[in-house]
Design a protein that fits this description.
It is built from ten helices and 13 strands. By secondary structure, the protein is of the alpha/beta class. Strand 1 and strand 2 form a beta hairpin. The longest helix is centred in the middle third of the chain and has 18 residues.
Amino acid sequence: MIEFRNVTKRFPDGTLAVDGVSLVVPPRRTTVLVGTSGSGKTTLLRMVNRMVEPTSGAVEIDGQDVSTRDAVELRRSIGYVMQNAGLMPHRTVADNIATVPRLRGVARREAHGRALELMDLVGLDRALARRYPRQLSGGQQQRVGVARGLAADPNILLMDEPFGAVDPIVRADLQHELRHLQDTLGKTIIFVTHDIDEAFILGHQVVVLRTGGTIAQHGTPAEILADPADQFVADFVGLGRARRSFRLETTPRGVMVIDGDDRPAGYLRDGGDAGTANTAP
């Protein structure tokens, strides 16, 4: 379990990035931090592995204050995936994935064997193992980044807008793969995004942050949609806009879901009775 205890971060230029945040991140679940620029989501994420030190308050992992741990060893024990993958361009795919295990003293052969297994896990063809990042598509690079984050078999995986730079179709595929990985591996994941739809797709717990680094609301996607804490949250998650309102319409193929702009959104998987009432997903 990760716990933020009244953490605040004020940078040397006076910018208040995080302001008195207290939050429990449950184990083996995905917690998504979502908010606009300046809401402190990346700052909070980086407090976990001490890339950012809080000005006050504490971050604890299983009851231990991370400030008491060696920063380098702490970072090597936590998976980290960032936007644009952050791969080393002069190293092959397999070498990139094997980076942390090699730094921790794992033999090269063993580390590369693990890299190939992880390529299977994230849906990468092993034939790509000897290629370099420049020879991969954006989606493939992000899969390598996820594999590298998992290479040391960490209990915690930090993901900082990892899918923000890929096209919508690839992004949807990567979101699906991450959900599958979480179902399989059961990691404690903190995921940062500015996209509320992505937050609702991935998050067991979603934390909506305001500009200035305070929590507006946290809960399951269903809880937030059913009972937004205030107008800011309602506007941020899209309630009151057409894309959050739906009606059902019977067609020869089945029951179609129509959004508030009268655009088809898909079909009900198990059928059902068509109706006219609007509802939130």
